[in-house]
Write a structure and sequence with these properties.
Elements (H helix, E strand, L loop, with lengths): L2 H16 L1 H21 L7 E7 L4 H12 L3 E6 L3 H9 L5 E5 L3 H7 L3 E8 L3 H28 L10 E8 L6 H23 L1 H8 L2 H6 L4 H30 L8 H25 L3 H18 L11 H7 L3 H15 L3 H25 L6
Parallel strand pairs: 1-2, 1-3, 4-5
Antiparallel strand pairs: 3-4
Helix pairs in contact: 2-12, 7-10, 7-11, 7-12, 7-14, 10-11, 10-15, 11-12, 11-14, 11-15, 14-15
Length: about 375
Amino acid sequence: MSGRALIVAWKELRQLRRDRMTLGMMIALPLMQLLLFGYAINTDVRHIPTVVFDQDRSAASRDLVRSLVATGFYDIAGEVRGYDEVSRALRAGKARVAIVIPPRYASDLTTGKTARVQLVVDGSDPQTVASATNTAASLVSARAAHLLVARLARGGAGPALEPLSLEPNTWYNPDLRTAVYIVPGLIGVILTMTMVMLTAMAIARERERGTLEQLIVSPVKNLELVVGKILPYVVIGYIQMTLILLAGHLVFDVPIMGSLALLYGMAFVFISANLGLGLFFSTLARTQQQAMQMSFFFLLPNILLSGFMFPFEGMPRPAQLLAQGLPLTHFLRIVRGLTLKGSDFSDVSLELLWMAIILGALVGLASARFRKKIA
């Protein structure tokens, strides 16, 4: 290696040392991602929100529910009084699982008949289906074996008659097709990636090209500048969303059960929130390269913490609270609810409120950060 190459390498290191933001991201990014994702990502889904439809209301039925809760996989979110309330709870995301106990559950156990328990699972998340079904099936099988031994010891029915059985019933995605789960989520992921990146370089590009002075001498206010930078990209976001919906429906046979008008209306808040975030990044960055680095830094936590790849219930509580501040977390629930479950406005209104709050905070931060002067 020649001495000139070493001189160039030394010069590059000195320049890198002056770029404190890039240098800080190079050191902090791997460490933060290691700690965050190593702590938060967990494919073992536990604490699944569950509702109980107990038609027997006996000591035996309550004991079965307590046994399921004791496994740590089910958290009781409430009791319901019919299948319509089960459907409402699953559509709104208040529950992922429903335990349905028949009216003569205790009587069937004592008279030697087969007591059949139904497990209704939200099929829009296949990973939750597998975890919820396997755990319940194992517990019911073990309890059935115990009851059968006790029954035989008393000289009851022969082993051909099963004391207790579980009947899993998957709603919304009964075939558990991965495309049905992934494609609606891709709408949010792709919009996040493109919208944040497009606007992240907006102010930085103005600064690099020397056109920032025109904005400085103009009568445009800070908020007006932010809104003006966002609006053109909203149209691009809608075009991308339409293309993904069409391709998903025509190529992968993804159903669209809910209102498209409602989906497009709520998507406006989501697209605007991501554009506002990108614009906020652009006020922090000195160059387009720094703005792009910030965009990539933000993209990975979105994909891993929002529930797109890994079940939201599998994450520890602090990671869930952090994910609540990501627009993608709430939009995924909206788009999957509207396309797969046929949710209505009341089912997803809380997610819309979250996105609106995030949007307001991001636009306010971007407006406050922008100063009509050359740094």
